[in-house]
Amino acid sequence: MKALRFYAKRDIRFENADAPIISDEKDVKIKVKAVGICGSDVSRYAKLGPYVPGNVWGHEFSGEVVEVGSDVTKVKVGQKVTACPALFCGKCEACQKSIFAQCENLDVIGAHRYGAFAEYIVMPERNVVPIPDEVDYDDAAMVEPSCVVVHGYYKTGIKAGDTVVVVGCGTIGLLAIEWAKIFGAKMVIALDIDDTKLELAKKVGADHTVNTMGKEPSEEVQKVNNGKGTDIVIESAGTPITSAQSFSLSRKGGKVLFVGIPYGDVMVKRLYFEKIVRCELSVYGSWNAISAPFPGQEWETTVHCLKTGQLNVKPLITHVVPLSKGREVFEITAERKEPFGKIIFHPED
């Protein structure tokens, strides 16, 4: 089969790879129809390199079931599906407590085993999630990043009437804006330094947008929130600067949720860090998108809201291109040659 294989920083190749086969009675073989580039893929391509040179990567995907193991009952051939990319060990203390996101040996497809930047992928049945006919393949490939956001919000206990500030308006930030509204937030403030992203933030539901370039973000938030901070702060930019600033954006007794990953040391000003103690903040880290019963309520919730139209991910998708153009597309992300949001590959185009 044809696949994108990642060999080193900025070295990805569209070439032949061995097609995966069903080796377990609980395996499901899927023909990949759509697969998205994650922000972590962009960072790994340009900055970090692969875990396993020559591996097929990619973990946000949807497709059609083409073969099932003898004991598979959850899905059938011809069915539209997505799949949770996380692989937990089932043996460590966290797994025994069904806290799968904290598994000591947690892995993700595309890291050490073949991922979905390919024509086919084989997944364990427990990871496979059926998709209703009303949801197209491109939207279904957005289920996993949506679940990342929902997983984090569940930690905060978000409720109707809350005020939310979202720091960073990439894919995860835009999804955080949409989900804040779905959960009933009365006000969502979006912060970024890119006006194009802020325009998109408005389209998906942000009540206020602020370009924070050269500004103190906490002062800007207070201007639009009656001199106060917000109930919930979502850090989704994943930069050292925004990670430090996020503590200053909350009201007293508020909550700060980190879903972004800064690839650099976070140096926090004393006045920002003091907020944790003096304002009695609750600070959450959120990793992955899984809970019990696996893969978790995040997946059921996202699929349901896509089906009903409450969640609209189409505005987030800016590029749909053949998988064969993978190298050129990743160079665009590395060089920032043009604006981009979620990029979706079609393996068979």
UniProtKB/TrEMBL annotation:
PROSITE patterns: ADH_ZINC. Residues 9-345 form the Enoyl reductase (ER) domain. Keywords: Metal-binding, Oxidoreductase, Zinc. SUPFAM superfamilies: GroES-like, NAD(P)-binding Rossmann-fold domains. GO terms for molecular function: L-iditol 2-dehydrogenase (NAD+) activity. The keyword Nucleus does not apply. Its EC number is 1.1.1.14. Coiled coil: none annotated. It holds the Pfam family ADH_zinc_N. Its cofactor is Zn(2+). Signal peptide: none annotated. Belongs to the zinc-containing alcohol dehydrogenase family. This is L-iditol 2-dehydrogenase.
